[in-house]
Amino acid sequence: MNIPGGTPSLKLLWLSTEPGIQVRRLDALLACFDLSSLKEELQALESPFQALCCLLIYLFVQVDALCLEDLHAFIAQALCLQEKSTAQLMDLQLDHVDPRAVQLGSLLVRGLTTLVLVNSACGFPWTAADFMPWNLFDGKLFHQKYLQSEKGHAVAVLVEQNRSRLTTFHTLKSIVCKACVKENRPVVSRRHWRAHHSGRWGRQGSSSHRTSSGHSRSGQGQHWRDQGPGSRQHEPDQWRRY
Known about the structure:
Structural class: mainly alpha
InterPro entries: Coact_PPARg
Helix content: 40-55%
Keywords: Receptor
Order of helices and strands: HHHHHHHHHHHHH
Number of helices: 13
Region (Disordered): 191-242
Protein name: Constitutive coactivator of peroxisome proliferator-activated receptor gamma isoform X4
């Protein structure tokens, strides 16, 4: 991996107490996700939004079927969750349950598991609490934001007319979109996508993503992204026939 000072050994990452080891641990984690160029932007974020951005970039690069509306819902629910009480979350009422929203929620939690493992392998450059689902994700709140985003509600509505959240929202969105463009995976609106790829958006289900293989769309990045029986070279697109 392209890491300043070279790729450190696991012994160094796990056991070293030398000055500056946390910097090397973070460099290793970011290199795993090919995010070294975004180090300054990520470090400027508060916890747990560093982890959230890293996770969203990972998912949006890996998963073809994710769109701008999904990104809006993921970010908005994470921002609003920080100030929600348990009682408020329990009292949320949904118009209906959308199967795709349920699947996206499951996908996010699975992505969190991957991020937890990488953070552990790199010697915990980020606090483990940053990756706990209750700090980043609530299923019913996400469902609410997903339905609002699908209906075309403005971002200000998604963040519940809170100016501070709105500012943070645009910061997080900018970082995610910038990283995705670098990987040749621009995040576009579903309506725009439909206009260019009629019919493909009808697909649903977990078969359309490749988080289990860790393969990068651009073919760039680390060897673990490209190899194994789950990678794109070995696994045909199950949805192409549609």
